[in-house]
Amino acid sequence: MEERVKYLFRKFLDNTCTKEEFDEVFRYLGMKENEPLIRELIREMHYQQLEALPSGIFIDESGELKGLPSPPTEKSYPAPRPPKTRARALIGVSLVLLATFVVWRLAPRPESPALARVSPKSKLVKQATRSSEYKYLVLPDSTQVCLNAGSTLEFTASFGTDNRNVVLTGEAFFDVTHSDKLPFIIYTGKVSTEVLGTAFNIKAYPDLEKIVVAVRKGKVKVNFADKQVALLTMGQQVSIGNKDNSVKEKKMKAEDAAPWQHGDLVYDDYTIEDIISDLERVYNVKIRIANPAVVGMRITTAFKKQDGVVKGLEVLSELTDTKFSLID
């Protein structure tokens, strides 16, 4: 994943990003775990630009460029940009990028409308897991939740009395207690999943290209941008693309709704990039991709978590004919 970030960052600096890559750059900027890497890339770029200045040019203590040649007097043709202007522009890029990064990371995120609408004065409760960590929760209404690695579940302190709304970032399996009066609603970005009482799994990590809802029992209504896109029953799942908004339904075995609970890592039509992101989260490691060109390749595969990340990377190497290695 680190190699992908570096690759996109360089394209961003060269102004050669596609719209999709540009969106991806800013998605990575918004991920807290990428802060050290992004800061280091900005620092490297800054010093590379300073080293590229012509010999004899330096920056004094006040920040002014010194030792610049006199501007050309011949004006019969468009004069090249003077070194001072070019150098200042290049150095300015570093400052703009750093400012963008800081604003992106530190700007307050708006509270979920789902939680703002109900009990606006109620305290917000947050449950979270780190990479390679799992957590079992029992909510105030007796709903059981298994929270997968690197995930967050938020709800108000009044949950179960005047609402049953939660916000999920990541992946979780829900066994929802039935209630005729209060529907249980899970918000994941633009997708909301509403149930009365059922058991199902939601995989909705912000860095993955799709959100997947799979039902083990009962019935689930899935909305996208406030419009119903699927009504799922036992043994059905739907995936919604974060980029292209595509909606795909398929049948499955009901017991396969949450394979991660049984120690299985299953990837059905996932990109290499998303699989690597998931493995990094599950095993709390960093992975290097030898050939960044394969990150967009789509594959279907599965491995046992207990076999370890190295075995998983060996499988990916065979499928993609490229090397994956752990970063110390």
Q: Give the structural class.
A: alpha+beta
Radius of gyration using CA atoms only: 24 Å
How many strands, what sense, and barrel or not for the largest sheet?
Answer: 13 strands, mixed
The overall pLDDT, averaged over residues, is 79
The count of domains is 3
Subunit arrangement of the protein: single chain
The CATH class name of the largest domain reads Mainly Beta
Topology as a string of helices (H) and strands (E): HHHEEHHEEEEEEEEEEEEEEHEEHE
Describe what you observe in this structure.
The protein has three domains: 105 residues, no CATH class; 150 residues, Jelly Rolls; 66 residues, Phage tail protein beta-alpha-beta fold, CATH 3.55.50. The strands form four sheets. Strands 3, 4, 5, 6, 7, 8, 9, 10, 11, 12, 13, 14 and 15 form a 13-stranded mixed β-sheet that branches. A two-stranded antiparallel sheet has the order 1-2. Strands 16-18 form a two-stranded antiparallel sheet. By secondary structure, the protein is an alpha+beta fold. β8 and β9 form a beta hairpin.
